[in-house]
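Collaborator request, handled under Task 6.
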Amino acid sequence: MEEISPINKSGESLKIRLCLIALFAVITPALHAAGPGKAAIASAHYLATEAGHEVLANGGNAFDAAVAVSSVLAVVEQTSSGIGGGGLWVLHRASDGFEVMIDGREMAPAAADKDMYLNADGSVNRDLAVTGPLAAGIPGEVAGLDHLATHYGRLPLSESLKPAIRIAREGFPVYQKFFGMLKYKEQDIRRWPAATQAFLPDGKIPAMGDVIKLPDLALVLEKIAAEGRDGFYTGGTAQRLVDGVRAAGGIWSMADMAGYTVKEREPVRTSYQGYELVTAPPPSSGGIAIAQMLNILEPYRLAELGKVQRAHLVVEAMRRAFRDRALHLGDSDFYPVPQEMLIDENYAAGLRAGIMYDKATPSDMLPGRENLPEGTDTTHFSIIDAEGNMVAATLTVNTIFGSKFMVPGTGFVLNNEMDDFSAKPGEPNAYGLIGFTANEIQPFKRPLSSMTPTLMLSEEKLAAIGTPGGSRIITMVLLGVLDFMDGNGPESWVSLPRYHHQYLPDTVFAEKDAFTAEEIAELTAMGHTVQVRERPWGNMHGVMWNRKTGEVTAGSDSRSDAGRAIVR
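Structure tokens returned to the collaborator:
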């Protein structure tokens, strides 16, 4: 096995990195004064992508298009997102280079407590944590859309919601992913009459191509279009939601609904190979983890390495970042997340020092908590408009069809994001992720997320990237970023074979075409346990503007039958 030494980096490297970030802040407004002249949208459903372009054609900007795409996905892709869930929108405004993350993450209700999912013997009741109204946090997506339209868009919210209202009323054809997920979760959906009526008309799974109409959802969206966030969080809609949740065993209140607020958060910023990355801060764990992994990897000449050696180093970076995720990350409004330490280059150097070039580091040998136990669905879209405004947005209801619970008369499922909290220290959630005090359940707290909407900026190229996939979101985005740095475009990022390590379980999970049998044997000889999964994961969507050539490109993941990337 060839031994690879990292590039020698002196103490000056941190100063250089900080200077680069400061330089971006100075040059960005001039850098984007002239936009690309065309727009690109890549999303998980063709109707959502078309809706975004429709709003752009009617005079909207990327932020209006983000409202349209989000709301249409909330109709046609309730497997993954919806107004019963939440989202994170990372924005770049071309006129002045301003960047921000809009945090529309779900919030724990006031009556929530850290032991709410524990059985009498102290074990976690997994059914309560993932299925039914007790699993649902207060939704944030509607407040996020209202905030986008009010503070960043050009059009009124009512205009950008028109495509979603139309599609909810007229219906959309059942597509392969929707059909497959209905079959997969049919029995859970049947536990709730309103969800059964909406998604299983005539009491059975609709056939491919059958049209699903959601008139109740159309009425809710019309109310939001007319009254903004108040049409959802106060008044009749809110009362219907609260009454329906409580009647089925949930703990929401009208005060919880009225008290929900959007938060604007400063993104995580890091630099890598001359690019500035702008990505999601807490309550997402994604941005810090991405920055940490890139800091660990930057001294290595990854492009010059063989595939196995490169994968080994990337996995070791993943392992260390996910270990810190488990110990340190949560809602920064409730817990003192040591963000500056975690993304500091000197801290990364210390983590890197423990990486052996020819041998895996067993996760139980990393410093941290002792006696840890071993331990997919969301959506993403990326937009760049003709002026150069950009949005990377990841939206979710958590697992497939969220809690599966639908309040009668609403037409949308509620999330099960409460499972993204740590129900018990060290106990894995639905994605096998563990957590401790930093992410324990507290009233009004937002659960830790893996969502990682990310922008990549330089004088030559601008790009937006992201994906669904639970705990694998972070590692998929990392692989996409590294592919971008290798000089490839969105079509390549979204098609890459994927592999993943999340600290515990101490296993490299891989798509079936990620490694050959010989490469798996080499990784195994280094001490890695590789488990090949037959089913692929993720649904990545990215856009890129090459300012040097003027080309605008977009890519939509071929793993999904409904996704669409369109440049106009």
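The cover message to the collaborator said: "The radius of gyration is 22 Å. The longest strand covers residues 86-92. Please let us know whether this matches your experimental observations."
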